[in-house]
Amino acid sequence: MAQVVEWPANRVRETFINFFEEKKHVDWKSSPVVPVNDPTLLFANTGTYLLFGSLEFLNWILDS
């Protein structure tokens, strides 16, 4: 019977990071996803703002 190998999240993360470090990639420090004290930037970065024109066009098509 094959041996079961456990892969908890920490092991997966460390294996992933080590793989790229061995290939001479830089491990940059992470930064927060939510901007500090700037509620407008998060909305713009999500890309949903770009959909507004498409949604208006879609509504125009559906209303025709």
UniProtKB/TrEMBL annotation:
Pfam families: tRNA-synt_2c
GO cellular component: chloroplast; mitochondrion
Top-rank lineage group of the source organism: Eukaryota
A GO BP entry: alanyl-tRNA aminoacylation
GO molecular function: alanine-tRNA ligase activity; aminoacyl-tRNA deacylase activity; ATP binding
InterPro entries linked to this entry: aa-tRNA-synth_II/BPL/LPL, Ala-tRNA-synth_IIc_N, Ala-tRNA_ligase
Full protein name: Alanyl-tRNA synthetase class IIc N-terminal domain-containing protein
Domain (Alanyl-tRNA synthetase class IIc N-terminal) ranges: 12-48
